[in-house]
Design goal:
The structure holds two protein chains of two kinds. By secondary structure, chain A is an alpha+beta fold. Chain A contains 14 helices and 18 strands. In chain B, helix 7 (195-209) crosses helix 10 (273-283). Chain A binds chain B through residues 298, 301-302, 347-349, 370-371, 374-375, 377-379, 381-382, 385-386, and chain B through 137, 139-140, 142-144, 162, 164-165, 168-171, 173-174, 177.
């Protein structure tokens, strides 16, 4: 890669050149620079449609990159401090799938926290790997799931020395980080790969004083959502690989599921976002943190709300905290997080990231303006004034430990029957049940349904938690493995 | 040589004033600020290219936004002006000896500085000892206020750019909280005439009406604003702008005005039918 620096954006530059050449298209896509779909041009703009093109020599090919995409990926690898970087256009879900499919084959074990993203459990269904769950503690006051304690990972490794990999959320949705450096070291000492779900951690690579980024901490693979904190288009993502990974083998694994018609809009957005982060990241994220800190202080001044940050750090299950995240505990004003989330949208035209029972999360990023932060704070003050009630207690109870009877794949593809959840004790679940909060699966495919689990689901529903995951939308019925 | 200032009132309508010379042009943290001299309208101020005030017609706007509420609530002592960095509203409010305190929450110190230098006609009011300027976003300033103002006047720019948060439901809610139990809020309420402006106008009315038991609009004729037909919002917890208006009491104050008078006060609340219809739609 001669003469290329982070100031370059080879893929973007190639697309700009391509646009100037006015090549006559006798290839797909059939809209031919938008001419075949004037309504779409009017909606999205001519510029957008003019680069919605197919792979071709001057624009490289995502499946087997050899020119501008390869260069863009190499620049990304350099920017993130990885040996290799792979552009992904199927969302971070696709990056997670490729990472797990590469790391563990059918029947092999992977150690992971119970509060993994749904895409992880789904990939285990695809791959046939066996999950070994580490129970993340739940913060008793806020009801949010935390990171993995180092001792808990050690115990899991001791019990399953044949596991192939350990997966870490870096950070969780709420911004909680595990002690990833030590966990990586531990995993490597036992010949396991260290995988990181960095769906919420792209900024760790570019700002000052952030929690450790996975690659710097010694991770072997990391799935990084560039479209979240990185500023690229929705569905664009990057999979990073360390030096111990077989680069060609990983490319093959990615190609098992990745489209052969990758969108150049998404790819170009990755290239430009990488350049922007590499050149301006420190400045950008200093501003994001400042906005977040300001919002946190102002929200705490309202009274009743608890906007929390680094003070949660306990050097173990909350080893570090991503303070760009603006999470607000709402139960002390008598409203559930989800209620505050709904009121913000319905009453004030403000769309927050999510609400669970105890918390509301506002996503603060590269694109925020101080005036919008002011609106958010005022709206929260107004919600308290207009809708506030007496404080309510957090509905959490002891979390039932999973008992794996079959691999998720075996259970998912087994012959199944449908039972009322209340009558399913003693059977093996064929699907997942999730409760928010704390956003941890209560059941995953292959796990034994116990009376405690049935109680937990009932309790969560009664307390107004969001319960999802089953084929039955009402979550009254569950598919269990036929005996 | 011909030099013209032009503002697009819609995509298809251009409004131009012949300019003698440009006196100032600068970019603040928040907006572009320009001052011109013109043969017809005298000196004028634009923000981001939008007309804010001219020496010739500013009296209409400032008198109408200030005297209408003051005539309904003559006991008002503590007044908050949001925006208002040119000093015009403060000048009118300061004419009431009964007013003890005038707080001005203006986001942009540069507007005040430039107006003090080039527009003493309005900015002279900043020398009044009752006037206190706070350089802060109005929405932030008001968050900390509760039950303390008799009158809040929102003299904002348009609902896009730095003034957009002053057209939100959360801001109007905070104003309600900041007012005493007999407080009044008056705001610059855009124009009903061109479709884009009218949309903002309807939305603002809907949001204000959701926060205040009394919410009416009144109008004035302002030659340099889009269409010339401009609206103000009158929102109150207790006082009705007509039922609680005592013309004699106001006349006794002996305040000499160029536009406002008791007849205009009553007449200004009579709105064209198409505007009434828009407001009914907005409330339903």
């Amino acid at each position: 890669m001669p003469d290329l620096a982070q100031e370059n954006a080879p893929l973007y530059e190639a697309l700009e050149q391509f646009r100037q050449r006015r090549v006559v298209p006798f290839d797909v896509p059939g809209h031919k620079r938008g001419r075949g779909n004037p309504e779409l041009v009017k909606f999205l703009g001519e510029k957008c449609l003019s680069i919605d093109v197919n792979s071709m020599k001057p624009l490289d090919n995502l499946g087997h990159p050899s020119s501008v995409i390869l260069e863009a990926e190499q620049l990304a690898a350099e920017a993130f401090g990885a040996a290799h970087a792979y552009f992904i256009v199927g969302g971070t879900t696709a990056a997670v799938q490729s990472m797990l499919l590469y790391a563990c084959r059918e029947g092999e074990k992977i150690i992971l926290p119970r509060n993994v993203h749904q895409s992880v459990v789904n990939t285990l269904v695809l791959s046939g790997a066996m999950p070994i769950y580490v129970d993340p503690e739940v913060e008793p006051r806020l009801g949010i799931p935390l990171g993995m304690r180092l001792a808990a990972v050690e115990a899991a490794i001791a019990a399953h020395p044949d596991a192939k990999a350990v997966l870490v959320n870096n950070p969780t949705y709420y911004g909680v980080c595990s002690r990833i450096e030590a966990i990586a070291e531990l995993a490597h000492r036992h010949n396991m790969l260290l995988l990181a779900d960095e769906a919420h951690g792209a900024h760790f690579y570019f700002g000052a004083d952030f929690p450790a980024a996975a690659m710097a901490a010694g991770a072997d693979l990391a799935a990084v959502s560039m479209h979240k904190s990185g500023g690229s288009l929705t569905q664009s993502s990057i999979l990073l690989a360390g030096a111990a990974i077989d680069a060609g083998g990983l490319r093959q694994t990615i190609n098992l599921t990745q489209t052969t018609s990758a969108s150049y809009l998404l790819l170009a957005s990755l290239d430009l976002s990488r350049r922007n982060l590499a050149l301006n990241g420190r400045e950008i994220f200093a501003k994001v943190r400042q906005l977040s800190a300001y919002a946190r202080d102002e929200i705490n001044l309202i009274g009743g709300y608890v906007a929390y940050g680094k003070e949660l750090i306990n050097h173990d299950s909350i080893y570090d905290f991503d303070d760009t995240k603006l999470s607000v505990f709402t139960l002390d004003i008598g409203l559930a997080g989800i209620e505050v989330y709904d009121l913000l949208r319905d009453e004030y035209d403000i769309q927050a990231e999510f609400g669970d029972v105890g918390n509301m999360l506002a996503y603060i990023s590269i694109g925020d303006r101080p005036r919008d932060i002011e609106r958010l704070v005022n709206a929260l003050a107004e919600i308290k004034r207009r809708f506030g009630r007496t404080p309510i207690a957090l509905p959490v109870q002891a979390y039932p430990e999973p008992r794996l009877m079959l691999s998720p794949q075996q259970a998912y593809f087994a012959a199944k029957t449908t039972l009322p959840i209340s009558a399913s004790a003693g059977r093996v679940s064929g699907e997942s049940v999730l409760c928010y909060p704390p956003g941890i699966p209560v059941l995953a495919p292959g796990e034994m349904i116990t009376p405690e689990i049935i109680d937990y689901i009932r309790f969560s529903k009664d307390k107004g938690c969001l319960v999802t995951g089953t084929r039955d939308q009402a979550v009254e019925l569950i598919d269990v493995v036929e005996e | 040589m011909e030099l013209w200032f032009s503002e697009m009132h819609t995509e298809n309508v251009r409004f131009s004033i012949k300019v003698d010379r440009q006196l100032y042009s600068g970019q603040s943290e928040f907006q572009r600020i320009d001052i011109f001299d013109s043969p017809e309208f005298g000196r004028f101020l634009t923000l981001d290219g939008f007309m804010m005030l001219t020496e010739k017609d500013e009296f209409i706007y400032h008198e109408m936004i200030a005297h209408v509420p003051m005539a309904v609530h003559p006991q008002a002592k503590n007044v908050l002006l949001v925006g208002a960095g040119d000093g015009g509203v403060a000048r009118e409010i300061a004419r009431y000896d009964t007013v003890k305190n005038i707080d001005v929450a203006e986001i942009d110190p540069e507007v005040v500085r430039v107006c003090r230098e080039y527009l003493p006609q309005t900015a002279l009011s900043f020398d009044d000892p009752r006037v206190h300027v706070y350089y802060e976003d109005g929405i932030r300033f008001i968050r900390r206020c509760a039950n303390q103002y008799d009158l809040i006047i929102i003299d904002s720019t348009d609902p896009f750019g730095p003034g957009e948060s002053l057209f939100t439901k959360e801001f109007y809610g905070s104003c309600h909280q900041a007012l005493k139990e007999d407080g009044i809020m008056v705001n610059q309420h855009e124009s009903p005439f061109y479709a884009e402006d009218a949309k903002e106008m309807r939305q603002a009315h809907k949001k204000i009406a959701a926060n205040f038991p009394i919410s009416l609009l009144y109008q004035a004729h302002i030659p340099t604003y889009p269409s010339g037909h401009w609206l103000f919002g009158f929102a109150a917890k207790k006082y009705h702008p007509l039922h609680d208006f005592h013309a004699d009491n106001w006349s006794k104050l002996g305040i000499k005005t160029k536009y406002y008078n008791p007849g205009i006060h009553r007449g200004a609340f009579a709105l064209p039918s198409y505007v009434e219809e828009m407001l009914n739609d907005a409330r339903s």
